[in-house]
Fold:
Amino acid sequence: MITKEFKYNPNVSYNPGIKYSEKDHQLKTNLVNQTIFVNQKENFKTSFPDLFQNYQNPSIHTNEPWNTWIHSSFDWWQCQLNFAVWCASTGCGISYNDHLLHTSNLTKSFYMFHFYYCIARILKELKSPLPTDSSFCYYKNPYDKAAYQKLCDEFNISPNTDWRQKLESSCQGLGSFEQYYKPSGEYRQNHKKDGPFFNIHDTIYHEKDISMAWTTFILDKSEGFTRAGIERINESIKIYVWALLGAQSQTKTEILKVGTGFDAQKQFLANVQDVINSPIDLPNTNIKLSKCFKIRKK
Structure:
């Protein structure tokens, strides 16, 4: 029997933005190092490029990053990533407890794969430079505004949503001021919203490790998939199947075979990255998911 958590629910609506201030699973969600199951028992391990290693904002020394955080926070890389995380999980109707912690190895493996793939794909659609790109900037990271609006329309949310995490106690999630210069008099009164007025030695420090704060955008309990979720999940199913079977076809070896299977496993990772980076439509495949699940070692 298929429960409501695994069905399309035309009446469901999940609010955008941060879902919870604290989460039990912050240290349990590892999307980079995954175990890919090809059936309920057999699997291999792979490591995707780490999209989360530069999540925590750096110290800042001028007013510009502060003003951006307050007035146009989506320019910050952290907020762009938070948005992609929300779309890939909550926006689809995928939850931590129902899907990412599913008792079936194969089901859990697929949804973990979907989560990573969908985040990476949305960042590519936004044309957001990654931390490894030369054009990357923490607080002024370029993105395609038309693509952002299109994604907001897809997930039926407002582009004015606040995507800042709020785990820190001050500065609206940016960090805490260690010290800053406060000018007095009329200038201060007329420019009190312009920022903390740093001098050259001033900085912002972080009260706590918020490197996993992106998990606060993940839904805890699902009431069913959204329409955007159904479409994105179907896309992920095609890629999961295509990357697995394609890797075996391309290397002419079984992906679970001892020794030579390592080549197919590397090709699986390459296939996923190729699709993420591809500007064209997804691979046109009629392969059924059940075929993927029947891959076995001979």
Q: What stands out?
A: The longest helix spans residues 227-251. The two ends are 32 Å apart (CA to CA). DSSP finds nine helices and four strands in the chain.
